[in-house]
């Protein structure tokens, strides 16, 4: 740990009032701060000065990024669960191409899309042009190319792995059945695991994401047709 951080640990001060509402006291890790710009796990009063300096530095950096229209930097200065809110804060200042490009980055990064269903529905159903920009750069041609040259079929078979009844209704699917099974069974759980199979029309595909090696198809669950569901064993990976 640097001398600066060691000195701050020796500094006694109250927590910045902006951080106080984001203090959680009853979690498994004890006291934690989950502010849009500052996370402090297993927080103690001894760490107040560090959290306060982080907040001040982050706010300055966010203001600078906004002023210089560095939108990716603006978004990713925010902690992961708050990046969709950061995107929505500046979406009106984005060109159509920037909108989909940055939305794709937030989508790939997010781990809690299920917590913001209404927000994601609004963003993914935007009528802005250049929607192909949400897809990974090397596969954007699948929307314009014919199938014989690597484009998507008019109807493509897709899969989704999930647990619980509501898990079916998500926007993230995959071309890879084995990957869907992995998602369904990756965590020990008492709930049954399922793999859904269906088809999506080319025009209903919002994005094709390959950045996480998942062959992910982003589409609305309501646009998936010919749906069938298979229960899978957690041990059958």
Instruction: Please report the total strand number as a whole number.
Output: 9
Strand content: 15-25%
Radius of gyration: 21 Å
Q: Approximately how much helix is present in the residues?
A: 25-40%
Summed up, the domain count is 3
Unreliable stretches (pLDDT < 50, length at least 5) are none
Sum this structure up briefly:
With 237 residues, the protein is an alpha+beta fold.
Structural notes for this entry:
The strands form three sheets. The chain has a three-stranded antiparallel β-sheet with strand order 1-2-3, with no helix packed on it. A three-stranded antiparallel β-sheet has the order 4-6-9. It has a three-stranded antiparallel β-sheet with strand order 5-8-7. It is of the alpha+beta class. The protein is about 30% helix and about 20% strand. It has seven helices and nine strands; from the N terminus they run αβββαααααββαββββ. Strand 2 and strand 3 form a beta hairpin. The chain folds into three domains: about 55 residues, no CATH class; about 70 residues, no CATH class; about 100 residues.
Task: Give short descriptive properties of this protein.
9 strands; 237 residues; 7 helices; alpha+beta; 20% strand; three-stranded antiparallel beta sheet
